[in-house]
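Incident log, structure service

09:12 report received: a user says their structure output differs between two submissions of the same chain.
09:20 pulled the input from the user's history:
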Amino acid sequence: MIRRIAPGDAALAFAALRELRPTSPIMASLHTFQAFLEAAGRESYALVGSFEEGSREAVAVAGYRVMTMLYVGRLLYVDDLSTLPEFRGRGHAGALLHWLEAEASRLGAAELHLDSGTGSARFAAHRQYLKHGLNITAHHFSKELS
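09:34 re-ran on a clean worker, output below:
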């Protein structure tokens, strides 16, 4: 079952997102994650989770936002997509991607975007994205600022 996760229900998404971002200072505690959700919600960041029958917490989670960019117009950007290891291979990420695509259309977005890290640990995720019709269309560059 796919359903939205409100900022006040951060505990439902915490384990799955911490799996993806274990070193993030935001994920250091449920309290810091809750504070992030409250602030990021003002920037349109939202969560959706995939739940198995009988599970209180989401077994897979996507964090996303809607934005407008000059080159494409309105788009839905997926910041985070993570499934707990013991629930991988059960269709949760695919169900979330389908939900996100439908949500993007509902919100009038022209495209759905996501970035993914590199390395062999991400090959399964990359196969999933390609299987769901996402294409590799750019290189993402970043610079840490002091």
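09:41 both user submissions now match this output. Likely a transient worker issue. Closing.
09:42 reviewer note: The first helix runs from residue 11 to 20. Strands lie at 2-5, 46-50, 60-69, 73-83, 111-114.
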